Every structure is written in structure tokens, then in C-alpha cells.
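Proteins fold reproducibly. Next comes a concrete instance:

***
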Amino acid sequence: MSSRDPKLFGGKTTLAIAVAGLALGANGPTLHAQPNDESLTLEVVRVVAQKREESVFEVPAAVTAISAEMLANSGINDFSGLTALAPSLTVKDAENTGNASINLRGIGTFAFSIGVEPSVSVIVDDVPVVQQAQAFNTLADVERVEVLRGPQGTLFGKNASAGVINIITAGPTEELEGFIEASFTDDDEYRVNAALSGPIGNSAGFRLNAYTHERDGHITNLTNGSDLNGDEGFGVRGKLVIDASEALSLQFIADYSERDVVGTAFTYRDIPSGAALFGAFPTFLFTDGITPGDDNRNTRLDYTPKSDNEQLMTSFKFSYDLGGYRLVGVTSYQDWSYVFEQDVDGTEFNIAGAFTGGALDGGIYQIGPFDADQITQELRLESPTDGNMDYVVGLWYSDANTERVFNRLPLFVADWEAASGNTNMAAFGQLNFHLSDRLDLTAGGRFGREEIDVYFQDFAAGTVYDSDDSESYAVGKLALQYAIRDDMFTYASISTGYKGQGYDISSGFDQSRADNPVGSEDAVSYEVGLKGSLLDGRAQFSVVAFLTDYEDFQAQSSKIDVNEGLTVKLNKVGELRTKGIEADFAAQLSSSLRFDAGLALIDAEITEFPGANCYPGQTEQQGCVGGAQNLAGKPLANSPDFKYNLGLTWQSAPAGWPVAAFANGNYSYQDDVNFSLLGNPRTVQDGYGIANFSAGIEDLNGRYRLTLFVNNAFDEEYASFIADNSGFYGGVPVLTQLLPRNAERYMGVKARFSF
């Protein structure tokens, strides 16, 4: 078989990574291996954070690498679970996944608008997703996840001003092999995941993956007795790699998935005395059987919320060896559709009938489908790495379009459709100068131009608005890295980020919004770090200190008014600053025991934001003057001051045993967090910690594996979002919450057969 490009053809030649949310580390011995001295040495992680595979030590950036093994040991099956293994990563949940946000170092994008790009770019097998909501999917047959913290615009593009989540799925193997895995839990979930991989003749390889899952909901709708917040879906992925010649390697990927959620539904967290819907209807009319509280899992809805997600991603990649130089091209197409239905008032009360004297009927609900597609083309040239200088240069093109239809009925009527387009062209390059045997200088830049357009038709008002705009941008990076010794490096860097201008597309859109898109967001980040190995390779560590300034930060806020209904606005926050320290550590304590830890201390604050909306009930003494407040000096929403995770893995195969035994424990903690951009003190989730445990056995050939697991072992209650609904309740602060599945203990069993 001809030699294969390791970036295209994975499998047994790919280094395994076993890092519990760390930027470092690698697998310890397999469970069926006999203990020996070599098992005490941690392998060095190989990542593609700079567009080509290299040691994580050699990357002058903050990188967290999470392996498939650590995902399994931690009981993580979907994107949101990554927050337990990457301390700088947080996720803000929402009733509609399209409104959720992904945050790194406190920075993310919470926006209702389809015309606004995220600050954190999610990339799957070299392809960035169009809409952030696409990321909230099942993690199946994943080789590793790389979390790149801080601006990454030079190599990854304009919508990476806060960082990148790079997901690499498993590739073909040199030999025919596969697995089937099934799990069942006591909260009525089943998962089945299977893969088959191997060679095709002497010059090609394939990998097929298929999965399905279904889980009953953990929220009860007392109106009809149904379960809400359940989840089901399936997916298939195929990879084909062809060594067309000694120099040319080709890769084809097709990935299709569906995910349906019955929910997500809010529950009442607090109902103060005197609360009345629209100031007129006492809450006892629609809260029978409901006891508000942080553990309340009952609601009453007359409209069942749901969301349906369907996605197709295809890509073609070639790698051509030009005698030491390598030409790489990636072409992709993706199509995503998403439909949501939502009970706006969150009750079973006949609001429409009460307001119209019976002319209308039912509560307030809203629905709306999304459709997005994108084509991308990247072409890059990679130089050899054995000279005094090496580089990566390339060209980028993308064309993305998203359409949305929105209907809110029968009160506060909204009826519109919108389309947003974004075309981006860029040239980029990054050069590494080897100034000496131990000193490297990295310099890079990206220069691009984007064109945006919008179309908005308001059917209720009978109006049409459209416009277009364009803007050029430039970002760059400069880093100096010094090798203290062969396995220890220190670096200092400065990098800039850019997130393009966007349209504030929501109810209330008009020609003024069309003609005046929300301006672009810029970032400047300073970073110093130290990382390497200790104790003859038995331990690895990383410590990073950073400071990042954001100018013209794009942020969404909403307001509920009895007369106007729900209104949303995309704000331009003047300036933000996030600074802090991140530390990672991994150690092989013995041939059978491994320890992992990660820590993020982050201070994210608004440094300039005059004229922000007041939060509900805010007084003049609390800073509300003339209906506005100055948020300068206030902490940023959804940014805990500190997070940490701890992991301990034990594995042993004593002589004479027919099986190997293993056990794993992971604990993650995050400080209190406010979900409101406006600083509402009522929407704070107190700090909490989640512990997951697993244990099991595996035969000595590694073919059969049985695992027992428990997630949230100590039954810790927490909310993934808290909302203040004062506007709906006559100024009384009625609080609602989203409770994730992991906010209560569940346990299960998982069986795996490999061949």
C-alpha cells in the first residue's frame, strides 16, 4: 500500500489522545496491557491547530485537546457536554436552540438574528458550520475535539474572534475493524453507535459510522401528562480516502443527521405573591399542581414546544505532495434545516379568549423554520518544515445563505420572512522563522472582504425591505516561542480578531435596520504561556495568561412589554475586556493510575456600554436613570469567574485475571453566573459541581467491554438558563428556568463489542 497522508488517513497511525479537558497528555496503556515502565510516559498530543499536524507543545497558542476516550469516560454524548472538560468553554442554553450561545473566555454571541455570525467558530472536519445552532448535535465516532482559545482569525477566518471548536471525526484504518456500542439509562434513554473501517484494495480506505438515540423527557406537562425535553435522532457518516498516486491523496466525506427535541420547555423557578399574567390573571388559574423552585420539573402548556433539526454536510479534500511542499484543497457543501414551535406565554391559560371576549382562542405561540446552505473552498500551500523558515499560505471563499420564516399568534402578531446572505473571500498566510535552534518567530495575517445582503418581508404590515453592504478586513498574529528544553516551551503572542457586520433581523425590522447593519466587532489579544513535560515525561502541564480587548461587541438583549409584546434588539456594546489565567495538568501517577486537571480564572467585564436598557424593576439607586443604565465595570453575562475540572482514571490487568478492570471519576465545578447581559440580580445561577463516575471490565484482547456509569452522582440541581418575566406579570419578577437533563442524577450501562 502506498504511503498515506496522515492528515487524511487516520486509524492506527494516529496518536491517541486522552486528555480530560487539557491542552496536553495522551493515552495511558490500554486496559488489557500489562503494566510496565513505558506506561508511565505520556505521549505528546498531535493537533492541527495551525492547519497541519504538529505537537501541541510547538503551537504558540492555548489549545485544549479532548480525546474520544475522555468523552466516553466522562459520559459526554453531545456538544454541550464539552463544557465539563474545557474550563474556558461555557454554553448559554435557550428554549430555541437557534438562540443558544457558545462562549470562550466569557465571549460568545447570543443573537436571535440569522444575520449575525458567532464569535466562536465551530468546525467539523475542516468545514465551518453556517449557524451556531448546527453545533448542538450528537458527538459520534469522534477522534478528538480541539478547543482553540482566543482570536483565531489568521488561519480560521473572520468569525473566530473568541476562538474555535475544531471537531475531527475518526478516519479509515489500515486493517478491517469496527465496533458496536449500546447504552441504556434509568431515565429511559438508549443509544446505539456503530462503525466499520478498513482498506479497499491497496490504495484506498473507508469508514462508516451510524448512530441512533432516544430519550424520554424529564419535564412533565400537567395539561396532558406528556413528557417534555425529550430527545431523539440518528445520523450516518461515510469517509472514503483514496491514494490516487504516491503524491496524491483524496478524501470524500458525507455526513447526514436528524435530531428532534420535544421541548425545550421552561418551568417556574419563583412566583412572588401578587403576580398576575398581564397584571390581570392570577397565577393560580394556570399553576395547579406546580410548586415553583429550582427543582421544579412540572409545567402547564397548551402548545407543545418542539424543534426538528436536519443537516447534510459533504466535503472533498485533496492533498498533493510537490516534492516536500504540499498543496491542500477542501471543497464543501452543507444544507441545514431547523423548525421550532414555542409556547410564548408558558401557560395553558386561554389568553386570547380572555383578551378578545372569545373571538380568538388559545395561548400565545410562535413557530418558524430555518433553512441555511453554504459552499466553501479553501486552497493552501504548506512548505517543508526542515529549513530555517516554513509557512502555510492559502485562499478562502465561502457563500452562505440563511432563510427564516417567523409567525407569532394569535396576540402580538408577527408574520414575516427574511433571508440573509454572506459572501467572503480572503487570502491568508502564516510564517514560522527558526531564529535559532530554540527560538521561533511566528507571523501571520489574513486579508479579506465580505459582502452581506438582506431581504425582509413583513406580511402583517405589507412591507418589504432589502439592502446590501460590504467591508474589507485584516487580522494577524505575531508570536515568539522559546524552547527551554526539548520538551518545554514558553511563548508570547499578540493576535487580532474580527467578526463581520450583520443585520439585526427580528420582529420590528425596517428599512433603517436594513440600511444600517450592526458594525463589525474587533478584538486584540495578548497571551503568554508555558507548557511542557515534567518527571521524565510522566507529567505534562500548560499555564496561559491572557488579556483580550473587544471593541464594538455585538450582543442581544430582549424586553417584554404588556402592550408591545416581546421585542429584541442587537446592541453594540462599546468595549469589553476579558483577562485571566488557564492551567492544565496531566500525570501518570503509576502504571494503573492517571490524574488530569484543568482550571480557568477569568475576569470578563464590560468596560464601556452607556445607554443600555435597564433590567426589570431596576431603580435609580441601582443605576437606572431615564430608562437606561451604564454597564461599565459590570461583569459579562454567562461568564463564571472560575471553573475547574478534575479527572482520575484507574486501570489494571493483574496477572492471572481473565479480564482487566477500570474506573473513572470526573468532577467539574463552575462559579456563579448571570444569564442577563443587563446585570439582573434575579437571573443568577449559583455555583455548582457535577461528578460523573464509571467502572467496568474489558477482556484481555480488548474486544468486549462493559461499563456501569452514573452522571451527576450527587444529584446537583442547576439551571442552564434563568429568565425574568416581569413584563408579562405586571412588573412582578416571575422567574422561569431551563433545566438540562444533567441537572439530576441518572445512571446506566454501556456495552461495546470491537473487532
Remarks:
- Confidence is low (pLDDT under 50) at residues 1-36, 559-566.
- The two ends are 22 Å apart (CA to CA).
- The CA atoms of residues 268 and 291 lie 8 Å apart.
- The first strand starts at residue 46 and ends at 47.
